[in-house]
Amino acid sequence: MVLRVARIRNLFDEPDSRKIHKKTIPALGGVAIFSGLFFSIIFWSQPELFIHLRWVILSLVIMFLLGLKDDIVSIDPYKKLFGQIVASLLLVVWGEIQINNLHGLFGLYELLPAVSVGLTIFVIIVIVNAFNLIDGIDGLAGGIGVIASLIFGIFFLLADHPILSLIAFSLTGALLAFLRYNFSPAQIFMGDGGSLVVGLVLSILTVRLLNIEVIPLFGQVILPTPAIALSILIIPLADTLRVFIIRIWQGKSPFHADRNHLHHQLLNLGFNHRKAAGVLYGTNIFFIIFCFTFIDAELNFLFFMTITLATILSQIPYVLSSKNKKLSSKEEVIMDAA
């Protein structure tokens, strides 16, 4: 239905110098993703539990409308950031979705209320924008979203949190349906209306996960939830940190658009969209398995091991791409000399 409306109204994402696609493609996949998520949550939630969802739903509506406007009429990045902060405040202050305890990460445990509010808003904004930034090739953001929401859903199901598992599995279903039309060659893009919504849902699930310590399936082991959350969202978080560092190092704004993302580096190595997305899917799954393999390890050790490993692996495509460029330059010099 969204595809049909986009074609009738000529609502397309036009290619330009920094975009990968070469033809006009609708960027309103967020409408379908939000609709599937919204109606699933409303339909499956129990009446007595619905009151706890109202702030989540309100924040999702704000984030969706913000992204949809940006898809149709581009808006200033700082206005977009302001809208994200408003949606985050609703969740944190009135929805009481807050990070209350870091379980020993950096030596911190129970947080003061003001610190909890500030840190939670920061985490939500980071995750939302990190997910928005990886939406650069066919099937990548949708596939990473499926992996993350599925793992979150299983976690919350085991921890007996039905509302959170409902939200997570609703997102999984919406994204699986979307991937049918978005996996390469894409017929439709997620757009900001989709990526901001998916990022917000994943940030809510992340914050709630950080407040869980024990799940019966794992016995009485205190779960390293900050490390688990990091492993689940490792692709968007590592990629965003990497490109922000590169942009700042080059004297540019961290929000300056470029082609330094991991998926761009993989394309430079000759991967097509399917293979590049598949490599990043596999990497995400590897980090989740890695984290659960060492689930008994000390939290700070596991957290920094995950960051270190992600840093090393994220540099491999860049190094290989640089070598290919040098080889190509040498070949051109030899050809010119000949």
UniProtKB/TrEMBL annotation:
The keyword Transmembrane applies. The keyword Transmembrane applies. Its EC number is 2.7.8.-. It is an enzyme of class 2 (transferase). It is a multi-pass membrane protein. Pfam families: Glycos_transf_4. This is MraY family glycosyltransferase. It comes from Rhodocytophaga aerolata.
